[in-house]
C-alpha cells in the first residue's frame, strides 16, 4: 500500500540553509504540503509545544556548544511533548549512526544521511511509516498515557506481527520501567540480550537493576555498553549512579565528565556532575558544571534556580575569592531573579546569598544591607515557605546585624508551623526518633514528605530514620536502603546550606557503607551458589 504524504506535517531542524532547502524540495516532490523549519533545538521545542508533527527530521550536529539532535528527543520526552506517533529521523553519517542507538527511550526511529536524494528519503520514510501504521493503536495509547492498556496492546501486537517482536519488546520494556515493574523489565531485557546483542536492551537491563538496588550487576552490564563505544549518555549516567551509590564518588565524577565530553550541552547531566563534584569538594569542576547547566537549561524544562544558587555556593567554597569572582557571584544571583520573575522564594534566596557573598568579600556594610533586605523578603513569604527555608535563612543571617531578629523569627516560625499538617507530622517523627521508635518515625516523615515533597530537611529526616530502621535485621533492609539512595540522589547537594551539606554527606556515607556491605554479601552468596 502506497503511503500518501499530502496530509503529513513535517518539521525540519537544521541550521544549514542549503541542505535544508534541498530536503524541502524533495519532500515537496513527494507530496508534503506543510513543512516548518527550526535552526536549533530550543526553536524546535517551541514548535513542538504548539503543534503535532507527523515527521521530524533533526540534524545531529547543530554546531559546537549547541544542543544536538538527540537532545531534541530527550528534552521533548522530559517535557512530555514528544508524541510516539511522530517519526523522528536523525540526520547523521551512516557510520556514526551505529553509535547513536544505544539509548533506550531517546533514540530516533530511523536515520538518514546527507547528501539527500528522493529515493533514499522515500525508502527510509516508507520503511518506518509502515511500522508506525501497524503500531498506531499502541502509539495512541502511549500518547494518551494509558500505560496499562499499552502493555496489553503489546501482547496483542506481538501475536499479530511476530516480525516486529523486537520493536514491540523495546516499547514494552520502556513501559515496564515507567510503571515501576523493574523485575519484569529486567527479565525482558535479559531475554532480548540473550538472543541478540542490543545496546539499548543492555542499558534497559542496567537501569532496571539499578532501580532494584543490584548495583554490582548493573555496573557490569552498563560497562559493556561503554566498552563497545556506544554514544549513550544513559549508560554513563546510570553507571556513575552505581559508583555513587556504593560510595565511590571519584569514579562517578570521572564517568560523568566523560559523558559531558560526549554531550556537553545536557543540563541534567551537568547538574548531576556539579552536585557530585561539590560533594567531593572539587570546586572548579562544580563551578564549570553549574555555569554550563545554567547556560544550556535556558528555555527548557530543565531550567532550575538550584543551578544558580549551587554555582554561587561553589564559588564561595573555593579558596580563591577576588573581586572578579565576587562580581560573577552577584551577577549570577541577579540573573536568577531575572530568570524566575515573580517568584518570591527566588528573590529571597538571591538576597540571602548576596549577603553571604559580601561577607566573604569582607564588605560587612553591604552584607548587612542585603541581610536586611533578605529578612524583609522572608517575612513576606507564606508560612509554609518560611518553615521550609527557616534553617538556611538563619544560617545566612549569621554574622550580620539582623542575626538576633532572625533568631526570634525562627522561634516564631517553628511555633506557627506546628499547626500545619506536615509540620505536625514532622514533629511527631522527630519525637518518635528520639524515643528510638524508628519505624514510627519513618512513617511520620513519609506522610510529611507526601504533603510537602522535595523539601531537603524533610528528606534528610526521612533518610536518617530509614537508615536506623535498616540497621535491624528483618526490616526490609534492601528496600529501605534503595529508598534512601533514591531520596539522596534526588537532592541537589550544591543548593543546600552548609549545615545541610554536612548532614547530607554524613547520611550519604552511611547509606553507601550499608549498600556496599549488602552488595558484597549478595555477591559472596551468589559466588558460593555458583561453585556448589
TrEMBL record:
Species this protein is from: Amphritea atlantica
Record Gene3D superfamilies: 3.40.50.2300, Tetratricopeptide repeat domain
PROSITE patterns in the cross-refs: RESPONSE_REGULATORY, TPR
Residue ranges annotated for the Response regulatory domain, each copy included: 9-129
Protein name as annotated: Tetratricopeptide repeat-containing protein
Keyword set, alphabetical order: Repeat, TPR repeat
Record bears the keyword Nucleus: no
SMART domains listed in its UniProt record: REC, TPR
Lineage, opening ranks: Bacteria, Pseudomonadati, Pseudomonadota, Gammaproteobacteria, Oceanospirillales
Renumbered ranges of TPR repeats: 233-266
Amino acid at each position: 500500500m502506497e503511503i500518501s504524504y499530502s496530509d503529513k506535517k513535517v518539521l525540519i531542524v537544521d541550521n544549514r540553509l542549503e541542505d535544508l532547502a534541498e530536503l524541502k524540495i524533495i519532500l515537496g516532490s513527494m507530496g508534503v504540503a506543510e513543512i516548518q523549519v527550526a535552526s536549533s533545538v530550543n526553536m524546535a521545542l517551541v514548535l513542538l509545544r504548539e503543534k503535532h508533527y507527523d515527521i521530524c527530521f533533526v540534524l545531529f550536529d547543530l554546531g559546537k556548544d549547541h544542543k544536538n539532535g538527540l537532545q531534541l528527543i530527550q528534552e521533548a520526552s522530559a517535557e512530555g511533548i514528544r508524541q510516539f506517533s511522530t517519526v523522528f529521523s536523525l540526520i547523521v553519517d551512516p557510520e556514526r549512526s551505529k553509535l547513536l542507538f544505544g539509548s533506550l527511550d531517546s533514540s530516533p526511529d530511523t536515520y538518514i544521511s546527507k547528501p539527500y536524494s528522493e529515493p533514499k528519503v522515500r525508502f527510509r520514510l516508507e520503511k518506518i511509516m509502515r511500522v508506525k501504521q501497524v503500531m498506531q493503536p499502541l502509539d495512541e495509547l502511549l500518547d494518551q498515557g494509558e500505560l496499562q492498556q499499552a502493555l496489553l496492546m503489546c501482547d496483542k501486537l506481538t501475536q499479530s506481527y511476530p516480525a516486529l517482536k523486537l520493536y514491540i519488546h523495546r516499547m514494552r520494556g520502556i513501559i515496564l520501567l515507567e510503571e515501576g515493574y523493574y523485575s519484569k523489565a529486567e527479565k525482558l531485557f535479559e531475554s532480548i540480550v540473550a538472543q541478540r546483542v542490543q545496546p539499548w536492551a543492555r542499558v534497559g537491563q542496567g537501569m532496571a537493576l539499578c532501580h532494584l538496588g543490584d548495583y554490582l550487576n548493573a555496573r557490569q552490564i552498563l560497562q559493556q555498553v561503554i566498552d563497545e563505544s556506544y554514544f549513550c549518555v544513559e549508560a554513563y549516567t546510570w553507571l556513575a549512579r552505581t559508583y555513587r551509590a556504593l560510595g565511590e564518588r571519584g569514579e562517578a565524577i570521572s564517568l560523568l565528565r566523560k559523558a559531558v565530553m560526549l554531550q556537553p550541552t545536557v543540563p541534567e547531566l551537568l547538574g548531576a556532575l556539579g552536585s557530585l563534584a561539590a560533594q567531593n569538594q572539587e570546586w572548579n569542576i562544580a563551578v564549570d558544571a553549574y555555569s554550563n547547566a545554567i547556560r544550556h537549561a535556558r528555555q527548557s524544562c530543565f531550567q532550575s534556580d538550584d543551578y544558580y544558587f549551587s554555582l554561587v555556593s561553589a564559588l564561595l567554597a573555593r579558596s580563591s575569592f577576588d573581586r572578579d569572582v565576587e562580581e560573577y557571584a552577584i551577577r549570577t544571583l541577579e540573573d536568577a531573579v531575572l530568570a524566575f520573575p515573580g517568584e518570591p522564594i527566588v528573590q529571597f534566596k538571591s538576597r540571602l546569598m548576596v549577603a553571604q557573598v559580601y561577607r566573604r568579600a569582607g564588605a560587612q556594610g553591604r552584607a548587612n544591607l542585603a541581610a536586611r533586605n533578605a529578612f524583609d523578603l522572608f517575612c513576606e513569604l507564606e508560612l509554609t515557605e518560611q518553615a521550609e527555608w527557616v534553617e538556611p535563612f538563619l544560617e545566612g543571617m549569621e554574622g550580620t546585624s539582623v542575626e538576633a531578629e532572625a533568631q526570634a523569627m525562627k522561634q516564631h516560625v517553628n511555633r506557627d508551623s506546628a499547626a500545619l499538617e506536615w509540620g505536625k507530622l514532622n514533629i511527631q517523627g522527630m519525637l518518635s526518633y528520639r524515643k528510638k521508635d524508628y519505624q514510627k518515625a519513618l512513617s511520620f516523615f513519609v506522610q510529611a514528605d507526601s504533603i510537602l515533597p522535595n523539601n531537603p530537611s524533610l528528606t534528610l529526616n526521612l533518610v536518617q530514620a530509614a537508615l536506623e530502621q535498616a540497621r535491624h535485621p528483618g526490616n526490609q533492609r534492601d528496600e529501605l536502603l534503595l529508598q534512601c539512595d533514591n531520596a539522596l540522589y534526588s537532592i541537589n547537594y550544591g543548593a543546600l546550606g552548609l549545615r545541610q551539606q554536612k548532614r547530607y554527606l554524613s547520611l550519604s556515607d552511611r547509606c553507601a557503607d550499608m549498600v556496599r556491605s549488602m552488595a558484597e554479601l549478595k555477591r559472596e552468596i551468589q559466588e558460593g551458589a555458583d561453585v556448589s
